[in-house]
Structure formats: C-alpha cells, structure tokens
Amino acid sequence: MHMRIVPSIDNPNRSLIFDIVERELQTAAVIKVGRFTDRAISSNHISFKSKVVSRSHCELWLGPDGKLYLRDTKSSSGTFVNHVRLSLANQESRAIEIHDGDIVQLGVDYQGGIDEIYRAVKMRFELNRTKKPRPLSYSMSAFNNLRSMTTTLSSPSSFIDSHTHPTATSPAEPSSSEVQVDECCICLYALAPFQALFVAPCSHSYHFKCIRPLLQSYPGFQCPICRCYSDLEASVAVETEEVIEKYGLSRIHSQHTHAPQSISPQDSREEARSTAALDAASASGEALESSASSSSSSPPPPASSDPPLSSTLIPSPSFEGM
C-alpha cells in the first residue's frame, strides 16, 4: 500500500506545516510516530517538530487484510481521528482502521498555537492515490486557456490586426455565445487579462488578491475547491523542450501563430461593395479632372470681325418739313 501524509490546513495562520511523507507499507511492518529527536531516525519512524507530540505518540501498521490501522501508544495529549479522541491521557487505545481522506490530529494547541513549536499536528491520509489517473485533460485545458489569455491578447501583432482588419477572424475563434470565461470561485468574478492570477498545481485558478489569505501557510497550500494539498516549494526545473515534447505544445503554438485568417461571406460581400463604391468614386473624380484639363487646354475662341454693335445702329429718320 502506498501511504501519503500531507498537512491538513484548517487555519492558514495557525497550522503546522511539515514535509509530505510518502511510504510504501509492507504487511506487519510497524511505523512509530512521535516527536522529533536528534537521534538517528530509521525508515520505520515518522517524527514532527512539535512539543505537544509525545516521543512515542502512536503507531501505524498494515494488517494482513490489506488495511491500515492506527493505535495511540499512551500519549499525554491524545490522538484524534476525524475529531474523535481515541483514548484518555497515558492510556493505550484500541486499533482503528484508517481510510483514504481521514484526518488525524496529534495533540492539541498549547496557548492558542501562537508559536509553531506548540501547535498540534493535523494530517490527512491519502492511500493508494498514485494509482488513480490525474485529470490531465482538465489540466491541459486550464493551461491552454491561460496560455491563450496571456499570449494572444498581449501580442502586438494581434492587437494591430484586430484594429486594422476588424473583419478578419480566426477560423477557430468561437462566437460570442459560445465563449466560456473562467470565474474565480471566491469572488465569482471573471478571470480576465491584465489581472494578477494564481494557478494552483491542481489547475484551479483564482485572483491572487482573493487567494492571498490562504497563502499564509506557505509553502503549504490546500486548494479550497478540491482540498488537494500542494508544496509550493516543489521543484519547477522543467526544460521548455521537455514540456513541448510531452504535451505537444509545438503543434498548439503553430496553430495559434501561423493559422491563416479567413473572412466570412458576409464580410466578403461588404468589402466588395465598399471596393466598388471606392472605384466608382475614383472613376468620377478622374472624369472631372479630365474635363477640367481639356477645358483649360482648348484654344481661345477667335475674335469676331463684325463692327461693334454701337456702330451698326441706324439712326431714326427725321420727318422734317412735315
């Protein structure tokens, strides 16, 4: 059986964070759980740096039936399974079965747990979870959504294209009625570009200002949606080529950066009409210019050889002697 023990975070300000414990359990092998000491620690011992935990607090073992069992070994501050104390102080308890997802607490907080050394140890057991397939499809979907949000809208070329060619659309671009925008489960507002976002290792995304109170338990983080515990100090040393080869991001990248732009039939008709109008206007302008130039270049009309009108007037006859 594969056993994984992670911190259970109820209050990020008053939780004891410890390294994740993973063990492959063998039948009848007993694991001692107690307070940390400077002595050499064997593989069958799990220790915690808390003074409310006894040196020999409890023990775990895998029974012949393949089930995990726990027993309090006369601890002074008690052992709790799902908030139920197993025995009184300094008394050994009966064996109790531990299931996947059970919460086990060692001791109780002393003086409110202000000092980390006086805090109770709260842990959650995860049994045989490594055999369950991880939701890779959801993780890749969230990764691609965030990647397109940060790369497409921050690209200067896409910004210029959207303003200079408003009718050009990508073939894979969904209509406005089909667009799905992720929301922050804390404030229920949309996760939008140019916002400070936090993406947990379980692929759930939040606004950083909304999730910040839960980061007080750093480096430990417990997702408020799926309750999955993650170590934020875990190594992130992964080469770019490895990510591209493993998840096929080169193909996705080529589709985003080299996808040909297409124009819808309606946009084509509108563009054809606008082009025809521009051509007509240009043709009429050229006609006006040619007529104006021809009128300016024609020779002036010849001067008339007839005498002026005043010289051709016949005086009225006079009737003298009448």
Automatic annotation (TrEMBL):
InterPro entries: FHA_dom, SMAD_FHA_dom_sf, Znf_RING, Znf_RING/FYVE/PHD. Residues 274-297, 306-322 have a biased composition (Low complexity). GO terms for biological process: protein ubiquitination; ubiquitin-dependent protein catabolic process. SUPFAM superfamilies: RING/U-box, SMAD/FHA domain. It comes from the Eukaryota. GO terms for molecular function: ubiquitin protein ligase activity; zinc ion binding. Residues 257-266 have a biased composition (Polar residues). Residues 184-227 form the RING-type domain. Keywords: Metal-binding, Transferase, Ubl conjugation pathway, Zinc, Zinc-finger. GO terms for cellular component: cell division site; cytosol; ubiquitin ligase complex. Residues 251-322 are annotated as: Disordered. Residues 31-86 form the FHA domain. This is SMAD/FHA domain-containing protein. The lineage of its organism: Eukaryota, Fungi, Fungi incertae sedis, Mucoromycota, Mucoromycotina.
